[in-house]
Design goal:
The protein is built from 8 helices and 2 strands. The chain is mainly α.
């Protein structure tokens, strides 16, 4: 089974939500192709790695870590790239039946932006924290993701405004 990843429509809906929640931040799409590239790169990586592993947890962790990392580094937005990356990774996990550790994903998005973690380290951290969830079948994964990650977006926003530290965001050792 190939892990599900968010669609471009999902990513754009997350951006719309960010713009609605934080209008004063001036969040705009600067490079929509960067979103497409992130999704395509992740899909190609999963397709390629499918030949070397069939372990569902490994492939899901790779998908979530890739989406987080490439969203943050490809910088599609004027502001909010860390928030978008963390939300996209959380959505990937939820879509594949896993609990998303939103605090960890916010921390990893910040560490990625600061160039203090590698893709492999991000994969390993996500993999170590994977837990299957019993999400009700009628749950909307995107709405569930946004509801759960919103407090962590607020913390990332405080960091961007110099009102929180790396230690505030990464409360557990990374």
């Amino acid at each position: 089974m190939k892990p599900a990843i968010p669609s471009k429509k999902d990513m754009l809906e997350i951006v719309r939500t960010l713009k609605t929640l934080y209008p004063e931040d001036g969040i705009e799409i600067m490079n929509e192709d960067a979103i497409t590239t992130t999704l395509e790169t992740t899909a190609h990586a999963i397709k390629y790695l499918r030949n070397t592993t069939t372990n569902e947890e490994d492939l899901t962790a790779i998908a979530a870590a890739s989406i987080l990392r490439y969203t943050v580094l490809n910088h599609p937005l004027t502001d909010g790239n860390k928030k978008l990356g963390a939300a996209a990774a959380a959505l990937t996990l939820i879509m594949n039946g896993y609990h998303a550790n939103e605090a960890l994903l916010a921390c990893l998005s910040l560490l990625t932006a600061m160039n203090k973690t590698t893709l492999q380290e991000t994969i390993n951290k996500i993999r170590e924290n994977l837990n299957k969830t019993n999400t009700p079948p009628n749950t909307n994964p995107l709405k569930e993701t946004i509801k759960k990650i919103k407090p962590h977006w607020d913390t990332l926003r405080k960091y961007d405004k110099n009102k929180a530290t790396l230690k505030d965001i990464c409360k557990t050792p990374t």
